[in-house]
Structures are given as structure tokens and as C-alpha cells.
Amino acid sequence: MLEVLLDMESRLPALLAEKSAWKSVFVDYHPPFVERLWRQVGDYRLYLHRIYPCEKAQALFHPHPWPSAMRILEGRYEMAVGYGQGMSEPPVAATVVMAQGSSYEMVDPDGWHSVRPLDGPTLSLMVTGMPWARPSHKSDKVLHALSAPAEEALWKSVERAYCV
Length: 164
Known about the structure:
By secondary structure, the chain is of the alpha+beta class. The chain contains two helices and ten strands. A hairpin with an 8-residue loop joins strand 6 (about 75-85) and strand 7 (about 90-100).
């Protein structure tokens, strides 16, 4: 997935220029809260995230329902990593701090993680592949698009990060 992330980054100026292809959502069903821009690109989904700080005990420890790769564009976050089948939370196997410029992939259906921004909101890019047949956290809460000012601020941060 890291190769896919690099490919998407090389194409990002053109992808960002097609603003009408992007959708926004405010993910606020569980901390940390996330402002998200996303779009489909072939078999992949591309996400731009501003993740807000939360308390360590609040950060959602979760598996991803698809393979993914991420790059931190601004800020730092603490990431807890674990491994386990099903939806029973596994033990934390490692805790790392990911800083601006760092990238990583999650390519096993039973990998778990949580992220918690440390110094204020972070900005990141994520690409995901086709979903696995794996349960993941879901919410009954209806998520809404970002407000116009929040969406514009996120666009400006992304454009600044990629010098678009």
C-alpha cells in the first residue's frame, strides 16, 4: 500500500484540482474527531484528514476494514498498535510517535491501531484498498458534511502541505 500512497501523492495536484470529485464529512461518533475530505480513485479511496486531539483513554482502538497507507503531513500523533481477530480489543503491542513526513501501512486484516494527536490537530493523507470481509467499528450516528468554513480551511491546509 505504500507504493499506492506514493503514486497517489504524485497525482495529488491533479486530483486536488478536481474539487467537485471530493466529498466531506465530519467524523464525530468517537474521539478523536476527524474532518475528512475523500474521493474515489479507481479501486482506491483517497482521504485527507485533520484529526483533533483527545485524551489517551478516549482514542478509538480499532481495526481497519481495508488495507491502508498513511502519511503525516502536519503535526505528530501517538499511535498504539495491536493485533487480534474479531472485535475483542487485543492488547497494545507497541506505541509509537508518528511525526510530519512519516508514513506507514496497515496490510493485515487483524491489525489494530489508535491515533491521538499530541501538539494540536494533525493533517494526514490516507489511501485505502478494497474492503476485507472483516468486522469493524460502526456507528448509528448520522455523519454530516463539513461546514463551508471548515471545509475551506482543510482545503487550504492540504494545498499548503502540497504547495498546490
